[in-house]
Amino acid sequence: MLLRFLGLELKNSIKMMRIALTGIILFAVLLTAVIAAVSFVMEKNNPVPIKVATVMDDDATGKMLVRYISQIESVKSVSEFVTMDEEEAFEALDDNELNVVIKLPDHFFDDVNMGYNTPLDIHIRPDADLLTEVFASVLKSGVGYVQTGEALAYAYIDVRSEYDLDTKFDGTIGDHVAYEIAQIVMHRMRIFDEKVISPYGNLDNYHFYFISVTVIILLFLATSFGFMYRKDTLAFENNLKPFGVGPLKISFIKTLIISMHLFVASCIICALSFIPSKMLDITMFELSLGHIYAMLFICLYLAVIINMIYSLAGNDYSVHSALLVTIVILLMMSGLLVPMSRLPKIISKAAFINPLYHLGRFMTEAIYGDIGIVSLLGMLIMTLIALLLTYLPLRKR
Amino acid sequence: MRFLLCEKEFFKNKISYMLMIALVCLAFIIPIPVESSDENRRAGILAENEGIFYDDLKENLGDGLFEYIVYDSEDDINNDLYKGHIDYAFILSDAYGDNVKDTKRSVMFLSTPYSLYKEACKEDFFNAWLITYSDRFIENETKDIFAVYDDDIIGELKKRKEEYQNSDLLFDVNIVYDTVPERTLRHRADGFRSLTGLVMFMSVFIFFGHFYSGSHKAVCDKMTLKNRTLYQCSYMLSVALPIGILCLILNLLRGATDIPILISHMILVIAYSIIWVLAAYKLIKKESTFIGLAPMLLIAQLIVCPIIVDLGEYIKVFEYIRYIFPSGLNL
Burial letters for A154-188: b for 16+ Cβ neighbours within 10 Å, e otherwise? Predict the structure, then answer.
């Protein structure tokens, strides 16, 4: 009778899961694509560049200068340069198709050659976003370099003539100083050594989001097993008691069925993760026996938790709604959407009572590192509590 | 009358209170990264070996876009980077004492995966560094240039250099903030506003599931199409209104000042949610499918709408896709 019940429940669940899984697979594909795109963008650390137009006379020096500036790493990281005529550029600025217009005054380079510093006009929209401000900041830094070089060169020229000093750079002392400063500026990035401090610990962005997506999909898939706890199903289960199939055995079978389906879903997710991995030339998931065991444990853990919730609360519309709200809160406080280090202290301190925190931590360690004793204990304790909360009331029944 | 009855039913349901408590929790406990990305401009600074150069550098920093915070220990810097209190950090090696010995790889630049403007921050720092270094340049290079080393000459060079730096004789740029047509002014998404939209929409969606069975269905079955639609709309309004008022209060508590826009946003979200749910109800015949759609909708909105991350800032198409959902409306 127990086996027949298992078969019946399995048949029912497969029927229901067909619909749910199709949705989940479609959703997983969409999510994976989105997350791969976000990770890729964040990995490159490049926000969508702003559009900058330069307006100038048909001047070869000007064009060369603009080409040079637009290729500087800091400028390239935030902006994209286009050349336009004046009317077209200001119309585009008005229509929000451009963020910045740099206007070189007429005879700008003639003035420079004559020793006059004609200022450049930078036109920015009044609703400039942070990126435009960043671009302006980069530009100001560049101007700052020129100013420092100029100030030094002028100071040397003045002091030389005032003190009547001899120099081997006769007549070109300004050029020499400017050249020295230009050398320092050209090689400015040499002064920096770089290091990244990640809030994900040793994880990359895409690893972090892969764990998040997998947990979220499994979690919501698990909640769709509410149909096994409907009132009519419970009435049918009561009829099985005379055949030796009690609530404990039924609960065990349900947990088993949920975890089986979750495991199939997790295999599909892991298989699908190879698409963005291949596209971005990264490793999101490596197939190994250890990982399979870990995923099995994770699915069992989720099944036990969901079985506990539905067994205790039943499945009516209100329970489902309450579950949804609770899951969102727990998710936001689990460190799966925003790294735990970036959440308020109170949440990180209370994380040990959040089952999703343990799940995320265990999964991260299992797939991308070594399982720590703390996360394993956390999962085991949570599983034990869920089992006790499920089975103690059932024993009484 | 019908509306009041629906309202009474809403307040009798425990889920209503749960939703409201959840909303309050999310408003005050969870930080919204969309907002914090605005502050991606704080940098820490620390010197392994404090000296005159470091003192001068600190004075020259901070006139630009980035805000610099002085630290006393590397642990504090790492900790604050880890927690996201700062997004960049500069640690000056012991090459910077009273004078600079070797500048190559002498500044450790620290960042996080969230540091969006690394290059810009380095340029800003380097600008201050160069101004500071220009004094060392005078001290180190003058002997080579003039073949004499005289404190008076050094002093005069530094004085002249500073005078030029403070004058308007040097090359400069004029930044002009143009006047543009008001219709084209850009709007920046507020994460919490989208979150309130999400809560309103999901509440309406979840509560509307009652129309698939029970007393609501029985009542509806006996009504004409017009009356049924009116009844369903008033039911959804009775759910959305208290939550909308709570959202309004929470937005005000979080410092929102644009009350007319805020109210318009609430009205639009409620109207859009009602249309959305009615359309979904028309298309979906099974209660289980309707319930199953809720988590999908929730996740889709969390990703597509500017709640956790504004994807539209990275991938243009998301600026338009988000309007599929009511929480994507962000006035």
Answer: bbbebbbeeeebebebeeebbebbbebbeebbeeb
* pLDDT tens digits, one per residue of A176-211: 888 989 899 889 899 999 888 877 666 777 788 888
> Tokens 């499994």 identify what position?
A218
Q: Which residue has the tokens 């600025």?
A: A93
Nearest beta carbon to residue B157 from set A94, A125, A159 = A159
B315:A328 CB<8 A: no
Query: In chain A, what residues touch B114 (CB-CB under 8 Å)?
Result: 42, 199
**Smallest Cα distance from A79 to chain B, Å:** 11
End-to-end CA distance of chain B: 32
Backbone angles phi, psi at A123, to 5 degrees: -100, 125
Boundary residue ending a domain (A191, A212, A229): A191
- Separation between Cα atoms, residue A286 and residue A277, nearest integer Å: 11
Question: Nearest Cβ partner of B172 from A117, A177, A197?
Answer: A117
Task: Report ipTM (2 d.p.).
Answer: 0.70
> Are A53 and A39 contained in the same domain?
no
Q: CB–CB of A124 and B178 under 8 A?
A: yes
| CB count in 10 Å sphere of residue A392 | 9
A172 vs A164: CA distance, rounded Å: 15
Geometric angle at alpha carbon A239, from A233 and A241, rounded to 5°: 115
Take residue A360 and report the two structure tokens written for it. Answer: 């995320």
The parent domain of residue A173 ranges over: 46-191
Q: Which of A171, A191, A211 is the last residue of a domain?
A: A191
What is the per-residue burial (b if ≥16 Cβ within 10 Å, else e) of A240-278? Answer: beeeebbbebbbbbbbbbbbbbbbebbeebbebbeebbe
Instruction: For residue A122, list its beta bridge partners.
Output: A102, B175
pLDDT tens string B137-183: 998 888 888 888 788 899 999 999 999 988 888 888 888 887 766 65
| Phi, psi of A264, deg, nearest 5 | -60, -45
